Amino acid sequence: MAQIEVRHLTKIFTSKDAKVDALKDINLEIEQGDIYGIIGMSGAGKSTLVRCLNYLEKPTKGEVLIDGKDLGKMSEKELLKQRKDIAMIFQHFNLLMQKNVVDNVSFPLLIQGVKKKEARKKAKELLGIVGLEEKELAYPAQLSGGQKQRVAIARALASDPRILLCDEATSALDPQTTASILELLKDINMRFGITIVIITHQMSVIRKICSHVAIMSQGEIRERGMVEEIFSHPKTKEARELILKDSDEGHSGNSGRTQDRLMEAKKIRIVFSENSSFEPVIANMVLKTGRAVNILRADTKNVGGIAKGEMILGLPDDKKLQKEIEDYIVERGLEIEEVTGDV
Amino acid sequence: MFSDEVIQMLIQGIGETLYMTLASTLFGYLFGLPMGILLTISDKEGIRPNAILYKIMDVIANIVRSVPFLILLIVLIPFTRMIVGKSYGSTATIVPLVVAAVPYIARMVESSLREVDAGVIEAARSMGASTFTIVTKVLLVEARTSLIVGVTITLGTILGYSAMAGTVGGGGLGDIAIRYGYYRYEAGIMVVTVVLLILLVQIFQTIGMKLSVHLDKRK
Ligand SMILES: Nc1ncnc2c1ncn2[C@@H]1O[C@H](COP(=O)(O)OP(=O)(O)OP(=O)(O)O)[C@@H](O)[C@H]1O
Ligand SMILES: [Mg+2]
User: Fold this and answer.
1) What is the distance between the alpha carbons of residues B125 and A11, in angstroms, rounded to a whole number?
2) B120, A95 in Cβ contact below 8 A?
3) For A317-326, what is each residue's pLDDT tens digit?
4) At B76, which CATH number?
5) Measuring CA to CA, which residue among A192, A198, A13, A187 is closest to residue A90?
6) What does the alpha-carbon distance between residue B30 and residue B109 come to, in Å, rounded to a whole number?
7) Burial, B173: exposed, middle or buried (Cβ in 10 Å; 0-12, 13-18, 19+)?
8) How are beta strands A255-256 and A220-226 bridged, if at all?
9) Mean pLDDT for chain A?
10) Which pairing describes strands A163-167 and A212-217: parallel, antiparallel, or unpaired?
C-alpha cells in the first residue's frame, strides 16, 4: 500500500461567472521515502493538488488516502490531528513575522500543547539541523530568503512529520540558495525517511533531487515515472518541452553551450546512459563517414545521482548521409530521436 | 490667570474625560474585539465562512454606525437608566459611548485582521491549528501593531464623542466648554478646554504610535 494514494481526484472551482476544472480525475501513488516531483506550467493545478493532499482544499470528487486512511472520511478533529503528520513549506515561507526564529519553530509544537520550555528545546535542536542555531533570536525580517526557508523547514520538522509537502519552495530563491535548500531536503529525506512531495515549475529541481516525477498540464497528469526514465525517454510533448527548457536555464557540470541555431535539415537527439562517454562515438562517426556534423547542444547532467548525457546534432542535408550517421549511432547502442523546432 | 476654583474644575474635567474615554474604550473592546474577530472569520474569504452570521453583524454594525451620536445618546436614555440607574453624569455617558464604539471598534479590528498574510494562516492550518488557535496565536499576534494603531484612533474618536456628550450634561471637559465658554461667553475657559482636549488626543496618539512601532518586528 502506497503511503499517499490519490484516486479519481477532481476539483472544480465555481464562482459566479466561471467554472474552473483545476484537477481532472487525478490518480497518483507515492511510496514512503520517495521524493516525488510534480511539475507543470503555471495554472496546471499543482498547488491545488498538493493542497488536497492535506485537505486544505476539499476535493470536489475522489479520495486522498494517507496510509490507507481516507481523509474525506475523517472528522474535523481527526483531520487536524492527521495534519501533524503532513508538514508543508511554501514559496513565500509564511513565517510569523512578529515572532522570532525559535518561536516560529516552536509554533507547531505549541499548537499540539507541548510545554513552552520543551518546545523551545526541540526548536533549538532543529535549528541546528538546518544550520541556523546562531539566528534563534532573530526575526524573519532580518533573514535572507534562504535562511527564512531553512526556518520554515525546521518548523515543518517540529511535529515529526512523515510527509513533507513543498509548494514552489525554491521558486523565490537564487540558484545557489536553491541548490543548498534542495541539498537540505535530500538530507532530511535520507536521515529521517520523510516522504517529500515537491511542486515546481523548474525541471532542474526535479533533476537534482527527485526520484519520481509527474508532469501536469491543465489539471491532468500527462506523464509520470522514475525521473531517470522520463529524462531519457520523454513520451509527451509537455515532458520534452520541460526538459528542453531546463537545458536552457542552467547547466551543471561539463556542458557545451548551444553553438548556433542554424536551421539544419534534420536534428537528432542522442541520449547517453550511465558510463557511456560520447566523445569517441562522435569522433569515430565523423572519421568513418567523413562528414562533419553540427553539435547544437551537448550536456551532461546529474540525474538522480546518475550521470546522463544528451546531445543534439544537426545533420547534413543529404538523406543518404543522414541514414548512414543514424545507423552508425544506433549500432553503438545509443538511442536517437528526431527533434523538431528550434533547439 | 484663572482662579483656583476654575483650575480645580478643569482638573476634575480632565479626570472625568479620561475616565469616560478609557472606560468606554475598554468596554468597547470587550464587545467590539470579538465582533471584529467574528466578522473577519465568518467572511467568505475568512477561515470559517458563515454568510448568515456575517450578514447579521454587518447590518448591525452599519445601522449603529449611521445613527448620529447625539441621537443615539437620547434614544438610549431608558437603557442607560436601566444599567447605571441615572441618565446624566460621566458614568451614565459611558453607556451610549460604548454602544457607539462597539461597531466602530469591530470594523477597526476587522480591517486590522484582514491585513494578516493569508499565507501565514494557511501555514497554521497546515500544522493542524484549530480556528481558535489561529485567531489567538496568529491573527491577533500578527496584527498587533495595526490593532494598537486602531486603539489609538478609537481613543481619539471616543474622546471627541465624550466631549459631545458633555454638552448634554455628560460631565468632563466638553461639559465645561459648553457651560462656561458657550453659555457664559467665557472664551478663555473654552479655549483652554479645547486646548486640553487637543493635548489629550495628542498624548494618546504619541503613546499609541510609539508602542506600535516598538512592538513591530517586521523591520
Ligand atoms: N480558490 C480558487 N478559486 C478559483 N479558482 C482557483 C482557485 N485556486 C486555484 N484556482 C484555479 O485553478 C487552476 C489551478 O491553479 P493552481 O494554483 O493549482 O495552479 P498551479 O499549477 O499551482 O500554478 P502556479 O505555478 O502558478 O502556482 C488555475 O486555473 C486557477 O486559476
Ligand atoms: Mg501554485
Assistant:
1) 20
2) yes
3) 777 778 888 8
4) 1.10.3720.10
5) A198
6) 12
7) buried
8) unpaired
9) 87
10) unpaired
- Nearest by CB to B127, from A93, A95, A159: name it: A159
* Option in A83, A139, A141 nearest B126 (CB): A83
Contacts of B131 in chain A (CB under 8 A): none
Q: Which residue has the cell 561539463?
A: A254
Ligand 2 midpoint to CA A172 (Å): 12
**Separation in Å, CA A18 to CA A42, A58, A189:** 19, 19, 40
Residues pairing with A4 in the sheet: A30, A66
Q: pTM of the prediction?
A: 0.82
Summarize pLDDT for B45-87 with one digit per residue, the tens.
999 999 999 999 999 999 999 999 989 999 999 999 999 998 8
- As residues whose CB is below 5 A from the ion ligand 2, the structure lists A 47
Amino acid identity of residue B20, one-letter, is M
Instruction: Name the residue with cell 481526484.
Output: A9
User: What CATH superfamily is the domain A4-233?
Assistant: P-loop containing nucleotide triphosphate hydrolases (3.40.50.300)
Compute, in angstroms, the gap from residue A34 CA to the centroid of ligand 1.
Answer: 25
Do residues B159 and B21 make contact, with C-beta atoms less than 8 angstroms apart? yes
- Ligand 1, atom 11, lies closest to the CA of A22
Dist CA A107 CA A109 (whole Å): 5
The number of distinct structural domains making up chain B is: 1
* Residue A234 phi, psi (nearest 5): -65, 130
Q: Which residues contact ligand 1 via a Cβ below 6 A?
A: A 13, 15, 20, 22, 40, 42-48, 201
Angle formed by the axes of helices A279-289 and A319-331, nearest 10° = 140
Please give the CATH architecture assigned to the domain spanning A251-339: 2-Layer Sandwich (3.30)
Q: Where are the domains of chain A?
A: 4-233, 251-339
pLDDT in tens, B130-182: 999 999 999 999 999 999 999 999 999 999 999 888 877 888 998 898 888 77
Range of the domain at B67: 4-215
Specify whether the CB–CB gap between B145 and B216 falls below 8 A: yes
Considering Cα of B133, then B134, then B137, then B140, what sign does the dihedral take?
Answer: negative
